[in-house]
Specification:
single chain; alpha+beta; eight-stranded mixed beta sheet; 49 strands
Length: 1364
């Protein structure tokens, strides 16, 4: 150790020693900065740092960045102003750092003189300090500043050293104002430690409290070390500082994440890189001592850190409106240890619905995060998956009863579930499938699909087939009064019920599923409001409209004659429809100009050459405008009054518009019907599918709306019966304010009965038949007169002809054939030899007010209660039987009837609740056992006629029988001869629930709430006394056929018991009251009509042809004429149910439908002379209208008859003259007409002949009273020569037709050869274009038989009582 004395020289020596030591240290340990321009910056880098920088990518940033205490305090995290990556660092070259020349200059100042050298050293230090103080701050360092360690921290850290330095006598304290980044770099490279390692005694203190950009460095050192310290500080003044490098995103990353920034700086220190990441006033930059260290630092940051951006399409994500949700989910997906080191940010472009996501942080973690985001974007991308082939019944159930489950799935998985709903006309069958569409994230699709399948598979379906619409259950289901109950039951048991026909169309009065569970459906709509579009459902969507309405009508029917139509109204009452051969005939309220969107053709009513005249034409012009009018002028200029014009439908959304010039025509209904018919045919020819026809003529023109409706609907029906191949919809359009026309057309639809829609099956038509049909279009004057004088409601017909054959089947077994027929009609009017009457209750059941199943009774009950009755004077047997167990024991009934040798049996409906299983098990099984168990020779019954009063009920049973036969489920050989033209399988009920108990519960509720069988007593009804006791069965069977009630006449009194369901009893009581009222009115009316016919006979005439009016029309004419006689202003009257108009002023009558007119006159008794051989006391006795039979006693008259050659030796034992003035008078009028025709066309032809007519004795009174009626033609033996009355030339030929023989005057006139057809011969007289032939003969050369089709052409003159 060297000890220096405390003297000036000693001090100088000490100073020099320190200086030399420092110089040697600088020489050995540091490289002085070169003076060349290529590297003008000083460096204080240790030579060890010149070795290669380690490859940082060999380890992850997590491995090489330890956590150390920060060099500087954390600054507030905020986003710094981003600097372009290519922004170059600004450096200040105005003042260069200290060079070797400076040192030389200072050294030269040191001389031998210690004091002198000491002063020079001091001057050098002062010069360096001055350079530091005056060194301009680089511009890039003045931009921002950072917070340096607090002075108290620095003082505490270096207090001991400073204290030691202060003890030195030569210590100095200097303060330098430096940029904060320089202060940061001093700390980052640990300059203090380096100076001390060089043997320099020095301490630093830092103070940044004065300025945001500048800080104060307080240097405490010795005077001898001051120059070296200052030299080092001066080297740092040219430090590299590039703000914004690393790039902007990394800068922001290091600004936000202080920990990562400090770790990087610590790593730089460990790697001897004189650089660091500085955060000065929220601005990030890399600061280094020189470019070499700067580039190393930057390279490390590039390799270790990364910032990647990813453009995402947000349109298919569920959180487009809230991207923060997606960011949150991304962070949740990234491990927490990684997410703490990453910075995620997003930028949304709302216009393009895209999002740019940027991830900044350690390169390896950034890459993993980007992959995670891509995967999550894929997972959360919305996709639509479909679950197809779901039975529609299940989709409806889910839509109505599983709303909560669907909503829970939607809320849990942020998805939207859309269940395909049933369309308006959708069918409900297990073979119809719907789909469920699910819009969800890709990642959840399998899970949601699995849960939906769980819901679907949990639903069970039970089906009950072929339930009669008239059974108890059928009535409960379709009764609108039970609709609310059905809704409540379904909601309570969560069981969906669908009542549908055989094709799956929902029944009209069945519960509409769109109304079920309304609260739940509303909840579902609210849940999906953002994603779903509400749809409008038509309440009358999926219903067999023909069937349902006819059922409704039949429930309220009071007469079998006025049968219910196949008509249906929608829920709002604005639409009616019937379906014939797949042609829909509709009635719609609306505007014709708006129908083009729904129809191929619309019809317009115009005036020729004027297209804005009339309400319909104006309406179309209002839509089409002048362009439409121009098209009409161009296309319709050559239109004739009886033609149809056609223009395009482009103005109305349809294919074509048909124009009929109704306003320019005679404006009659006949013209209108013909033109509309032409429109239908033209639409069919042009391949149109639908046509909209406005109601024409019922407005200002004044056509009767009822008649227009009747003829138009009938026209459409006739068109549909021809089975058109193209035109399938005929829609009559009624303006919304024209309620009268709408009601008229609706009534016309209701008048279309099942019978009018059913045919007898296809028949071959010969050319001759076609010619005859064509000739029927042309009517003679006589036929026109008959049409005008005959009432439209008074056509007589054989009761059996009222029967409509629906099904004819045949069974062959052991060479025995039996026929099974199903009819719609009244069973009591059957011509079978046996009729089963189930309206006779036994003593046990007549006292029971109510019961359960009508089949519940003791075994053998049917045979025990069976009573047989043969009607007097006929072969008809009535088998009265108690209805209890009658269906089950049907086989026993057959055995009894067969034992009585009856060949045919008429069978009514045996049980109200009879279904297809009952028919199979009890009806067919009984018939087959009957055939199997009997010897073929013992089988007498060969025909089974099932006759049902309800129209659709009869169709139901016929359909079921045909289906059973066609399915070949029977034992014996069955075949269908005539198929059911319109099928009705009843209805099917589908029960849909999640458990069988719910289905069982709702079935039980329906059974317990169905209609009850009860008894009602109807007292003091005089009508019952008008029914003969032996004919009571007819009345009872009629009531059963119409209302399914049993009426039992009380043994004493005027009352009766009525058994049945409550609603049926009500209808029966109403019907009986109407019958009673009608009976009284008819009696009174008949008396008045007969009196009028006796006192005044009206007739119509065309030219010389005259025809008397029927009795009822004659009465109306006389009654109205008396009114006219008293008040001449009342001259126009409507008669015959408004089908004819009478003008008494001009004495004319006009048929409304055909517009045919003729004159009318009132015939007096003096116009026709009374035959000379008639016997009477007073003339009034003859013309009173009643016929009389007079035994002929005049021998001359007897001989005249006996000598007729054609008697062929028959002996007349008694001769009776028929004196019927009314018949005789009509015959004479007809004789005058025939005589005129013969004189005109065949003058030498015999006009009148005496011919014979054989008939049954019981029909003679009817012939004597009313004459011959061609409508009864062929009832006994057929009509091989056509419809008409048959007369033989020889008496023996007539004897084969009955035991009564009549001698008849017949106007044979001009005859023609028979065509041997069952149709009337309508050929014309040769040479005439309008008059038809007078009679038909079997052989033109030598006839033996004449047939006349005019009832007035034959007058029964005598009854011949003859023997062999």
């Amino acid at each position: 150790m060297v000890k220096f004395e405390d003297s000036a020289k000693t001090k100088h020596l000490m100073t020099e020693v320190i200086r030399v030591r420092n110089l040697l240290g600088n020489y050995m340990n540091y490289s002085r900065p070169p003076t060349s321009d290529s590297d003008s910056k000083s460096t204080i880098v240790d030579p060890s740092t010149e070795r290669n920088t380690p490859q940082l990518l060999e380890k992850s940033i997590d491995d090489w960045i330890p956590i150390y205490p920060p060099l500087i305090s954390n600054t507030p995290k905020s986003r710094s102003v981003e600097q372009e990556p290519n922004q170059s660092a600004s450096t200040n070259n105005d003042k260069s750092p200290i060079t070797s020349d400076d040192i030389k200059q200072l050294c030269q100042q040191f001389g031998p003189d210690m004091s002198q050298n000491s002063n020079a050293n001091l001057n050098r230090a002062l010069s360096l300090q001055d350079k530091i103080d005056n060194c301009p701050i680089p511009s890039n360092m003045n931009q921002t500043g950072i917070k340096i360690l607090e002075n108290k921290d620095i003082q505490r850290r270096h207090s001991n050293n400073i204290g030691e330095i202060n003890k030195s006598l030569s210590s100095v304290r200097k303060e330098f104002k430096l940029p904060l980044k320089i202060l940061f770099l001093i700390q980052q490279i640990n300059l203090l430690q380096r100076l001390r390692n060089d043997g320099i005694t020095v301490s630093f203190m830092f103070d940044d409290s004065q300025c945001n950009e500048m800080g104060t460095l307080i240097v405490q050192t010795t005077l001898g070390n001051l120059a070296d310290v200052l030299d080092k500080l001066l080297c740092l003044m040219s430090a590299i500082d590039r703000c914004g490098n690393p790039c902007g995103k990394k800068c922001q990353y290091f600004a936000k994440y202080d920990e990562m920034r400090n770790n990087v700086n610590q790593r730089f220190q460990e790697m001897n890189i004189d650089a660091g990441i500085a955060s000065i006033n929220h601005s990030i930059s890399v600061v280094a001592t020189d470019s070499v260290h700067y580039e190393k630092a930057v390279q490390i940051l590039k390799e270790a850190f990364d910032s990647q951006s990813l453009n995402l399409d947000m349109k298919d994500l569920p959180f487009t409106q809230n991207i923060e949700t997606f960011l949150f989910l991304v962070k949740e997906r990234i491990p927490k240890s990684d997410s703490n080191k990453l910075w995620l940010e997003s930028e949304v472009n709302n216009e393009s619905s895209t999002c740019t996501m940027t991830v900044t942080g350690p390169r390896r973690l950034v890459a993993k995060a980007i992959e995670t985001i891509k995967k999550m974007h894929q997972d959360y991308t919305l996709t639509i998956i479909s679950i197809p082939d779901i039975i529609i019944l299940k989709t409806e159930y889910i839509r109505l009863f599983r709303v909560k489950d669907i909503s829970a799935l939607e809320n849990r998985y942020s998805c939207h579930i859309e269940i395909e709903t049933a369309e308006d006309n959708e069918v409900f069958t297990p073979q119809l499938y719907k789909s469920i569409l699910i819009e969800c994230c890709q990642m959840y699709k399998d899970e949601i699909k699995y849960k939906m399948h769980q819901i679907i598979n949990s639903i069970i379906i039970e089906r009950e087939d072929s339930i009669s619409l008239y059974s108890k259950i059928g009535r409960v289901c379709r009764d609108s009064n039970n609709k609310k109950k059905l809704e409540l039951w379904q909601e309570k048991y969560e069981c969906l019920m669908i009542m549908a026909d055989h094709h799956g169309h929902r029944m009209k009065n069945s519960h509409d599923s769109t109304a079920i569970h309304l609260k739940g459906a509303a909840m579902m709509n609210d849940t999906n409001a953002a994603a779903s579009t509400p749809s409008t459902e038509n309440e009358a969507s999926a219903i067999d409209t023909n069937l349902a309405a006819s059922i409704t009508s039949e429930d309220n029917a009071i007469s079998g004659a006025n049968a219910a139509p196949l008509t249906s109204a929608s829920a709002d009452g604005r639409k009616e429809e019937i379906l014939i051969n797949n042609v829909a005939i509709k009635l719609t309220k609306g505007n014709i100009e708006a129908q083009g969107a729904n129809h191929d053709v619309i019809v317009n009513s115009i005036q020729l050459q004027s297209y804005q005249y009339g309400s319909i034409a104006i309406a179309l012009y209002g839509v089409g405008g002048s362009d439409y009018e121009d098209e009409c002028k161009s296309q319709l200029q050559d239109l004739s009054v009886d033609g149809i014009g056609c223009t395009s439908g482009s103005f109305f959304g349809c294919k074509s518009v048909y124009h009929i010039p109704f306003i320019s025509s005679d404006r009659t209904l006949a013209w209108l019907v013909n033109r509309v018919n032409d429109c239908l045919n033209q639409a069919e020819t042009q391949g149109m599918n639908s046509i909209a026809i406005p109601i024409i003529g019922t407005g200002k023109i004044g056509l009767d709306a009822a008649l227009v409706g009747k003829d138009m609907i009938q026209l459409a029906v006739n068109f549909a019966k021809n089975t058109p191949s193209n035109l399938k919809t005929i829609d009559f359009i009624a303006y919304s304010r024209d309620q009268k026309s709408y009601d008229a057309f609706q009534e016309a639809l209701n008048d279309i009965s099942v019978t009018s829609l059913l045919g007898q099956g296809p028949q071959q038509q010969s050319d001759e038949d076609s010619d005859q049909e064509q000739s029927e279009q042309e009517l003679t004057d006589q036929e026109l007169l008959e049409m005008l004088t005959k009432s439209n409601a008074s056509t007589k017909s054989d009761p059996n002809n009222n029967f409509q054959l629906l099904l004819k089947a045949q069974c062959n077994h052991n060479n025995v054939s039996v026929d099974v027929n199903v009819y719609h009609g009244m069973v009591h009017e059957s011509n079978a030899e046996a009729i089963i009457d189930i309206t006779t209750l036994c003593e046990d059941h007549i006292t029971i007010d109510s019961h359960g199943n009508i089949n519940n009774s003791d075994v053998g009950h049917t045979v025990k209660t069976l009573q047989c009755q043969q009607l007097p004077g006929s072969n008809l047997w009535i088998y009265h039987v108690c209805p209890y167990r009658c269906l089950v024991e049907f086989g026993e009934l057959l055995a009894c009837i067969n034992a009585n040798n009856q060949n045919s049996v008429a069978i009514p409906l045996l049980d109200i609740d009879m279904n297809v299983e009952d028919i199979d098990e009890f009806i067919f099984h009984a018939i087959e056992l009957f055939l199997i168990n009997h010897n073929p020779n013992d089988i007498k019954i060969n025909r089974f006629d099932f006759i049902i009063g309800y129209q659709n009920r009869s169709i139901e049973i016929a359909t079921w029988m045909q289906d059973i036969i066609m399915n070949e489920s029977l034992i014996l050989n069955w075949s269908v001869i005539q198929q059911v033209p319109i099928k009705n399988f009843g209805m099917n009920i589908y029960y849909v629930a999640t458990n069988k108990k719910a289905i069982a519960d709702i079935k039980l509720r329906m059974q317990t709430n169905s209609y009850k069988w009860t008894r009602h007593v109807m007292m003091d009804e005089d009508y019952f006394n008008t029914i003969p006791s032996d004919l009571w069965y007819r009345f009872a069977l009629k009531i059963w056929s119409l209302h399914n009630t049993i009426v039992i006449h009380q043994e004493t009194g005027d009352g009766a018991y009525i058994f049945g369901y409550e609603i049926d009893i009500m209808n029966t009581v109403s019907y009986i009251c109407k019958l009673s009222k009608t009976n009284v009115e008819e009696k009174s009316s008949q008396e008045l009509q007969q009196f009028a016919a006796e006192t005044a006979q009206w007739y119509a005439k065309i030219g010389s042809t005259k025809t008397n009016f029927q009795t009822n029309l004659n009465y109306e004419l006389e009654k109205n004429y008396n009114i006219y006689s008293k008040d001449k202003s009342k001259k126009i009257f409507r008669i015959d149910s408004d089908t004819k108009i009478v003008d008494y002023e001009n004495m004319k009558i006009r048929d409304v439908a055909t517009s045919t007119e003729c004159l009318i006159e009132k015939l007096s008794s003096e116009d026709v002379p009374i035959p000379d051989n008639w016997e009477y006391n007073k003339k009034e006795d003859i013309v009173d209208g009643y016929y009389s039979l007079v035994d002929v006693t005049n021998q001359q008259e007897i001989d005249e008859i006996k000598n007729i050659p054609e008697l062929n030796g028959l002996t007349i034992s008694k001769l009776q003259r028929i004196q019927n003035w009314n018949l005789y008078r009509r015959y004479q009028i007809r004789k005058a007409e025939v005589t005129a025709s013969v004189k005109k066309y065949q003058p030498n032809t015999q006009v009148e002949r005496r011919l014979f007519h054989g008939t049954a004795e019981n029909k003679v009174p009817s012939i004597c009273k009313s004459g011959f009626d061609r409508d009864y033609s062929g009832t006994a033996t057929g009509c091989i020569h056509g419809t008409g009355s048959y007369f033989a030339i020889k008496a023996k030929d007539s004897r084969g037709y009955g035991n009564a023989l009549l001698l008849v005057r017949v106007l044979t006139g001009i005859s023609t050869q028979s065509s041997r057809s069952s149709r009337p011969n309508l050929s014309f007289i040769p040479g005439s274009q309008s008059e038809r032939i007078h009679s038909v003969v079997d052989k033109i050369d030598n006839p033996t038989m004449y047939v006349v089709s005019n009832d007035n052409s034959a007058y029964p003159e005598y009854i011949l009582h003859v023997g062999s």
